[in-house]
Amino acid sequence: MTESTSQQTVSHWINNKPYPGTGTGTAPVTNPATGEVTARVALADLKDARAVIDAAAAAFPAWRDTSLAKRTQILFRFRELLNERKGELAAIITAEHGKVLDDALGEVTRGQEVVEFACGIPHLLKGGFTENASTKVDVFSIRQPLGPVAIISPFNFPAMVPMWFFPVAIAAGNTVVLKPSEKDPSASLWLARLWAEAGLPDGVFNVLQGDKLAVDELLENPAIKAVSFVGSTPIARYVYERGTAYGKRVQALGGAKNHAIVLPDADLDLAADAMVNAGFGSAGERCMAISALVAVGDVADELVGKIAERARTIRIGDGTAGCDMGPLVTRAHRDKVASYVDAGEAAGAEVVVDGRTVQADGGDQGFWLGPTLLDHVSTDMSVYTDEIFGPVLSVVRVESYDEALDLVNANPYGNGTAIFTNDGGAARRFQNEVEVGMVGINVPIPVPMAYYSFGGWKNSLFGDTHAHGTEGVNFFTRGKAVTSRWLDPSHGGLNLGFPQNN
Ligand code: NAD
């Protein structure tokens, strides 16, 4: 199913077939557990980008006019195929991203939940109807698709993040151009093949491989009507500003620095398990990873001890070998994360667990960095201020709930957060007062279910619409209100005045 066997170039995808394009640029695709280059990915030139966009534009009128019943039948078929064969997709993710197989399977399952949500879209596309709003005048609303839409996704969830958007976009009658990350592009083609097998007509789901050039064309080309972006904050801001300047609807989800607050009355075993899972799962390369632990009052010593004990048991290695945690995505990223640990140590943080010297169960050339726990981190250290996107958990000690809340609310990001406590009143106050889009109460990674919407606040999201759920349906459709009157014998003839309701 994958196009990324060695010697091969991972291509674009148009009209239910691979499309080699005319661009000559490529980038390496690497297995992070071995350091081996396993394929090259095509980097679109302008002609390629336009060819993919044109395919999506050509397919739109027929797909828009395809009945809801037919559209949802194809979605159901896609869901069945995905469910049967998700192991294949998980293996592709592990081979290019590095996350362990179980985690890759979890990613696919979370994406599948959005497909299942989108299977029920007829209910969400129903409009309202008011009979006799004025005498013999009816008013009703309908929601219609936008046209070809672009999805630009990051490396860390090569299947789930595209699936936050494309099931809803396609179910609502739009056509799609997916521009995946260059680092792990093969999942996109596997998904494209699955759509073809599910019976999706040519041109409804297309893949454009590439870098900034491809993204800029998606932002500027007038055929593209909306852009869903997920990635780092500087690029999210750029995509939002440029896309909206070109008149498009844009939702651009950015980076994160997620804090967990542990109050003195919390169950410390539960909190320690949660911190290890949320800090080191997927090697910390999750936008919902916890990277700052705010220990309130006297919990810090005991909690740090419990986390350290657990972190030391984590087995690092090849994601296909039954390990707990895989490598980082590239050598450059691994070295950058390690340099943050160096800087934290130099600035006075205590390195309680040091991942820089980890012994991994994998190739010598793998991009390994073990779980790292830093204590006594202060808020001026780069390890605290920056999004690191690696397996590094920084402990900040504070005296009170108010001090902890102020830290979270002062942070420029607002993606996810969690509080650990047995005090319902404190938790309730937190859910009300915290300025973050997704909140966990004794839950470290509060990713909403597909029928709610996913999105952060502040620098974690540009635009006002979150992903999937009813917000996703609204994003991929536009409303129309129709006022209708059918003449009957009471027709009153000419009247140039503004109508009054009577
Ligand atoms: P990235 O910003 O480097 O890349 C994201 C996408 O933008 C890719 O498709 C890439 O090709 C493209 N891109 C990169 N540079 C560009 C440029 N100069 N101009 C135009 N396009 C460009 O992000 P990444 O490293 O792939 O992913 C990690 C980041 O994504 C982290 O910051 C993480 O927090 C964030 N993320 C956020 C969420 C969320 O829901 N908020 C989810 C997943 C990941």
From TrEMBL:
PROSITE patterns: ALDEHYDE_DEHYDR_CYS. One of its GO terms (biological process) is L-valine catabolic process. Keywords: NAD, Oxidoreductase. Pfam families: Aldedh (PF00171). One of its GO terms (molecular function) is methylmalonate-semialdehyde dehydrogenase (acylating, NAD) activity. Its EC number is 1.2.1.27. It comes from the Bacteria. Residues 25-482 form the Aldehyde dehydrogenase domain. Residues 1-14 have a biased composition (Polar residues). Residues 1-32 are annotated as: Disordered. This is methylmalonate-semialdehyde dehydrogenase (CoA acylating). It comes from Rhodococcus ruber BKS 20-38. The lineage of its organism: Bacteria, Bacillati, Actinomycetota, Actinomycetes, Mycobacteriales.
